[in-house]
Write a structure and sequence with these properties.
The structure is a single chain. With 339 residues, the chain is an alpha+beta fold. The protein has eight helices and eleven strands. Helices cover 24% and strands 18% of the residues. The two termini are 28 Å apart. GO terms for molecular function: class I DNA-(apurinic or apyrimidinic site) endonuclease activity; damaged DNA binding; oxidized pyrimidine nucleobase lesion DNA N-glycosylase activity; zinc ion binding.
């Protein structure tokens, strides 16, 4: 499942590719035909992320063209998407579009692994018009603009909501370390600390609760707790406030860096040559990063302290990294550094 930084990168990609365009919206699979009909021909006026939720705002072309529709206007319809475990967006373009951040263009897949090899733009028709490639697989939603197409497959959630329904979803979510604080919004760090401190649940479980903090997944959970030297099984109410403030501040830095680079890197430079990886064990899965193969990128094998390193020596103390299941998800930690 993609973590919050990937969804924020998605929101940025949609904004750069389609903002201000009237899009052809369809459901090749057919399961979202009614929702697609509500958005077809409408103009993309906003692209936002909150944690793992993506919101694409569409306005009537008559209003958007006249500049009368603001992203928060009541007449904006929102496509809400939660990718879940299997969802992904696939993009293709005519070669004329460029993306500011380095996540691959004009063709890229953004999900747990953000990119697929980039290729040339699709061939133009005889009259010079660009023809988007046919849908591949069970495409729930297809968005077609003048120079690019985006296909959604396998999402956990995909629906059209109005402004009030969008705000209701956001109100249920915890603060997002990547988002900037909006006018009138409470301090996100204070909100996070209060939510953890009033719970008896283990802090390692609370970090995966999107009502407590939005966007943190299994990698950021394991790595941020290691960097904070916090026992993931310690009850939230027993974690000192200062430690939770430092944990939040570190998540802000790590997750915003992930949004900027497209890769999760949590190791400090001085720790990357300590506790070298052992040969692959049966069933051990390498974590792919968007920056794999990029010059000067931190190799994926050196990017984490504990995630997917169970049985390998801790990079700091040398003790084997531990693994257990917590609420159906694998939890990785060092029993010495996080005692």
């Amino acid at each position: 499942m993609p973590e919050g930084h990937t969804v924020h990168r998605l929101a940025r990609a949609f904004g750069e590719l389609f903002t201000g365009e009237a899009l052809a919206v369809s459901s090749p699979q057919g399961r979202f035909a009614a929702g697609a009909a509500l958005l077809d021909g409408h103009v993309l006026v906003a692209s936002e992320a909150w944690g793992k939720q993506l919101f694409l705002g569409f306005a009537d072309p008559a209003h958007a063209g006249a500049g009368r529709t603001a992203p928060d206007a009541d007449d904006v319809r929102w496509l809400r998407v939660h990718l879940g475990l299997y969802g992904a967006w696939t993009f293709a373009g005519d070669g004329s579009t460029a993306v500011v951040h380095a996540i691959g263009a004009p063709r890229r897949r953004i999900g747990e692994r953000e990119t697929v090899p980039a290729g040339p733009g699709e061939a133009a028709e005889a009259d010079g018009a660009w023809s988007p490639p046919p849908p591949r697989g069970a495409v729930r939603v297809r968005l077609v603009g003048a120079h690019a197409v985006a296909d959604l497959t396998g999402p956990t959630a995909c629906e059209v909501v109005d402004g009030a329904e969008k705000r209701a979803v956001e109100d249920r979510l915890g603060p997002d370390p990547i988002r900037e604080r909006g006018p009138g919004e409470p301090d996100p760090r204070e909100t996070f600390v209060a939510a953890v401190r009033r719970s008896r649940s283990p802090v390692g479980l609370l970090l995966m609760n999107q009502d407590v903090v939005a966007g943190v997944g299994n990698i950021y959970r394991a790595e941020s707790l290691f960097r904070a030297r916090l026992d993931p099984l310690r009850p939230g109410r027993d974690v000192p406030t200062d430690d939770l403030c430092a944990l939040w501040d570190d998540l802000v830095v790590l997750m915003r860096d992930g949004t900027r680079t497209g890769a999760i890197v949590t190791t400090r430079p001085e720790d990357r040559d300590r506790g070298p990886d052992l040969p692959d064990a049966p069933g051990r899965r390498r974590v792919r990063q968007n920056t794999d193969g990029a010059p000067d990128a931190v190799p994926a094998d050196e990017a984490f302290y504990v995630y997917h390193r169970d049985g390998l020596p801790c990079r700091v103390c040398g003790t084997p990294v531990l693994l257990k299941e917590l609420a159906g998800r694998n939890l990785y930690w060092c029993g010495v550094c996080q005692a």
